[in-house]
Amino acid sequence: MVVTKRVIVGAVVACAVGGTGFLFAQSRSIDVETHGAVVRALGELDQRAAELSKEGLATRFGLVPNYDPLVGTVTTLEEDVAALDRALVRSDTRTDAVVAAEAGLRAALDARRATVERLKREVAVLKNSLRYLPLAAEMLLRDTREAGDAEGGADAVNAVVAATLVYDLLGETRLLEAQKARVAALAAMRDAFPEDVREDLDLLIHHATRAASHHAVVGPLVDAMMGTELEAAVEGVRGAYDAAFADGVATATRWRTVLYVWCALLLVVVGVTLRKLRELFASLERKVAERTAALHARNEEMALVLHNVDQGLFTIDRGGVVGAERSAIIGAWLPEIAAQPTWGAALAAVAPERAPWFELAWEAALEDMMPVELVVEQLADRILVGGRHLALAYKPILDADGGWQRMLVIVTDVSADVAGAAAEERHALQLGAFLRLAHDRAGYQEFRAEAGQLVAALAGGEGGDDGVDARLLHTLKGNSAIYGVDAVAALANEIEVGMADERRGLTPDDRGRLAAAWASYEEAVAPIVGEEEDATLDVGPDEVARVVGMLRDDVARSAIAGALEAWQLEPTRRRLARLAEQAQRIGARLGKDALAVTVEDHDVRLDGASLVPVWQAAVHALRNAVDHGIETPEERVAVGKAAAGSITLATRLDGESLVIEVADDGRGVDWRRVAERGAALGLPHETEAELVEIMMASGVSTRDEATEISGRGVGMAALRDAVTALGGKVAIESTPGRGTTQRMVFPAAASRFRAASAAPVPPSELPRTRRSERVAHVH
Amino acid sequence: MGATSLRAPRAALLVAASLLVAACVGDTGAADVAVTRFAYVYAPSAHPDEPIQPLPVGYEANADLVRLGDQLFHDKGLSGDGTVACASCHSVPDGGDDGLGRSTGIRGQKGGINAPTVLNSGLNMAQFWNGRAETLEEQAKGPVEHPKEMGGSWDAVVARVAADPGYAGAFDALFPDGVTADNIRAAIATFERTLITPDSPFDRWLRGEDGALSERQLAGYQLFKAAGCVTCHQGRNVGGNMYQVFGVMGDYFEDRGGEEEADLGRVAVTHDEGDRHVFRVPSLRNVALTAPYFHDASASSLEDVVRVMATYQLGRMLDDEETALIVEFLKSLTGTIPATGGGAR
After folding, report:
1. A 6-35 → B contacts, CB under 8 A
2. Active-site pick, B60, B137, B138, B149
3. How many Å lie between the alpha carbon of A259 and the closest alpha carbon of chain B?
4. Closest residue to A89, CB basis, from B19, B29, B52
């Protein structure tokens, strides 16, 4: 399509130029110079022809000494005709008529030349005779006189000579007759001449006759020489040429007119074309503008994308000069780039400690000795600018032969990653700290205390001399390693190496870094280790195992965090354990030694302070259980039970309700005595609930005598008051001979008291009295 | 594709441009003739009214072209078998001819006519006995291809000359079109035009040196004129500028005993019966050196020639003394033979 268009355009241009050329040539077909040459040649020919005639005549009458001029004139004539022919051939007006006229001229010239040749020949013969006649006559008459006389001979001879010469001179027929008569007369006198001269006489008569007859030959030749055939032929050529020339001029004029019209047309075409082109260009410009706008929009979009990714891009050349095109974010991240001549200089300004590293790697890169992949690996770096961690990656822009002239520098804000890594590190530190605490709390705390002192000594420069510092540092390093404080251990190691390498002591910078590293560790583990002893966490081994399991199983960090967070609540285990101790102590005091107290806390944790009154009141329930529930060993053995009584202390979450139970395997409540007591106190004593109410009433006791431990019936009332004050209820389940369970239920306790259980046990599955093999550690 | 699309407009432009150029420049028909330009240089005559005038004393010509013509003139390679040069029959030191009645061509063949002298041939109005060549260039065409003379061909001559680096270089230096038959003939003809024999005693007399002629020679000249010889043998070349019947006053050929082809004369050229036995009047310059005489070489001495001419051309008898005087005069027409550089190659 394009080709076709171009071919058409080419053809049109060719037509325009070619047509113009053709018309120009046509309009100039009359060449003035050539015309001049023709006219000149024709003029020369006229003149030459006239000269030839004149010379012919002069030759005839012996007015020229030789034929050279005549030959010269003929030669010149030939040359003139040739020149005319050349000029005519050159001119574009050599019509058929002109060619025919030229042929006529050539023929006329040839005829004239033949005439000239003939004239020369015949004039020579005539001249010979005429010239000889007087000489012959003189010799004849002399000889005649010597040989005797011839009467009238001399007169006759002279008369012949005279008549011949006169005739030759005047050429009149009358004179020819006269000459012929004289010759005849002389011939008649032949015998009158002496015999010796008769031959000479014959010769004279022969020449006279010859002269006379040759006059007739020469005469027409001279007439022919004087003829105008040649001039007429020249005139013929002139006429034909002039006509052709006039035609040519007319034609040229016509062509010129056509040329003018053509040129005007061309101008119009050019004008129209230019206008079309202008329109085309205008529309093109419009299109270009539209495209440019679209492109611009897209570029802006791209730029938007580019400027909104968390990466910044710019390029540097081998001189380190930063290219003008770069992500907008670069300006925000690394404003120094605009201020510095090179990337190296900018780097030196923002991250002086990394600049030497870059310079070194860059030098290596410029040497092109190493594979470029290695070079960019070396160049890659991380800097901290304006609180932002920036990762620098380099990517060579390779040219065709694998070399590079520019490097793309990819800057990535890795602050979040760094923060994440720091958080992770914190978690790891916390976990480590926790494990240490769990394993050897005292030892760990001792380490912390000692390390804190070491760091303080080192940071404060208390060592005083390098040796002390080094020992302190080494101890710190060793202890830190043992207790998994790797960052401090690594830093101490680094400083140690630096000191050894440079044979120096601690620098203020080293001291600062050590202090910061230790502070950072302390800060990280603070939530675990707590500020004081009280704040220490109480975590059971299976709780720990569960969290460890979660960590191993890659459970979501938030879940793990939740589990760990829960540890900050107070485990009920501790309270239960204390209650268990109290149960033991009560049992021992009441002679009910070797109580088997089981704690089933179900990992329930509570906001420590929230249920303090309940826990205090729970002691009454415990006393009830030990004092009233559990039989004496003799009684127990008698009814077939183990001598040692058994108490179970439990906490559990039943849905949203918190349940605290104190169960015993004693004799159970003597509901009959409770009813009697109720009756005695004037209280309703028919239903189980009424009976329980009686038991809770202040001053009711099933015991006959108040003991140190219980007996005044105040305990159960206090318990019920405390529980009720916190929105709970107290329930008593008792099976005579089998035991009693006192249950405190706090509906929605979980939300009200911030209760938590790592693994809440559904109530259905919860065994009423289950022997737990696990016994809480109580610290 | 790109090339094609470019070619069309470019070709069109070229065509158009050439048309324009052609239109502007026009036809340059006139060839450069400077190299072959030739002109004789004349000395003033002390006797301008005499029918005989002195030869030119010099010429203006391209020296390289003359040298080249000289070499070619003497080059036997121009003949069919490499045995005959122009100079073989027109030996310049020998009076411009070979002194033979019939020249010897290739393979010893005899020619049909007495070879005319090349000396002063540039002053003849036409060449050959019958004047069938108007110029020396045209004349040169004949003998090269004549089977009895040089028996070659112009194509062969051109090929041989072109193959010769010396010739080719010389031609290339002189002519834009290099070696061509026309250029070879132009060289030879130009050289031949230089073969003039000035400073003969008679020319010296004509130029005013009164003592150049002996009394007998002067008397012979007077008789030459009085007897009518000069009616034909006139001009600077003492002939060569007209045709004349051989046998104006008598039938020479019948008297000689029959007519041969060579005797036809100019009728062979013009086919005009009036031109039967008509020959170009030969120049009498150096005639003492060019025996034998006449086209049929029938006369071996100048005396014989004078007598034959008197009888058949002038129609009169000359006695021995008159004949001797004319012969004395004729000997005064011997000029200085030009030195030529060429030797037989």
Report:
1. 6-7, 9-11, 13-18, 20-22, 24-25, 28, 31
2. B149
3. 13
4. B29
Per-position DSSP letters for A604-668, written without gaps between them: EEE-TTTTHHHHHHHHHHHHIIIIIISPPHHHHHHTT--SS-EEEEEEEEETTEEEEEEEE-SS-
Superfamily for the B201-331 domain: Cytochrome c-like domain (1.10.760.10)
Please give the ipTM for the structure prediction: 0.85
Span A390-436, pLDDT tens digits: 888 888 888 877 778 888 888 888 888 888 787 777 777 777 777 77
Out of B11, B17, B242, whose CB is closest to A120? B242
Residues of B in contact with A20 (CB under 8 A): 16, 20
CATH number of B62-193: 1.10.760.10
- Cβ–Cβ contacts within 10 Å for residue B196, how many? 25
Tell me which CATH code domain A569-765 carries: 3.30.565.10
- Could you tell me the CATH superfamily of domain A309-413? PAS domain (3.30.450.20)
CB B158 within 8 A of CB B181: yes
Q: Does B53 touch chain A (CB under 8 A)?
A: yes
Buried b (16+ CB within 10 A) or exposed e, A131-157: bbbebbbebbbeebeeeeebeebeebb
The C-alpha atoms of residue A236 and residue B165 are separated, in whole angstroms, by 51
More confident residue, A726 or B7: A726
In this prediction, residue B282 carries a pLDDT of 95
Residue of A nearest to B3 (CA): A3
Measure the CA–CA gap between B19 and B153, rounded to whole angstroms.
Answer: 41
pLDDT of residue A29: 65
Strands (DSSP E) contained in A488-588 are: 570-571
Residue B178 Cα, gap to closest chain A Cα (Å) = 23
**Every domain of chain B and the residues it spans:** 62-193, 201-331
Summary count for chain B: helices (H), strands (E): 13, 4
Mutate to test the interface with B, among A74, A125, A135, A210 (most CBs of B within 10 A): A125
Please state whether the predicted TM-score (pTM) of the whole model is above 0.80: no
d(CA A13, CA A20): 11
DSSP E strand boundaries for B242-345: 243-245, 278-280
**Quick one: tokens of A550?**
């979660």
Interface contacts (A, B; CB < 8 Å)? 141
Query: Any idea which fold A15-270 has?
Result: Methane Monooxygenase Hydroxylase; Chain G, domain 1 (1.20.58)
Q: How many CA atoms within 13 Å lie on the side-chain side of A553? A: 10
Instruction: Residue window 185-204, chain A: list those with CB within 8 Å of chain B.
Output: 203
Interface test with A, best of B45, B47, B231 (most A CBs within 10 A): B231
**Which residues of chain A neighbour B249 with C-beta distances below 8 Å?**
206, 210
> How is residue B60 annotated by DSSP?
E
Cross-chain residue pair A132–B244, CB shorter than 8 Å? no
- Identical topology for domains B62-193 and B201-331: yes
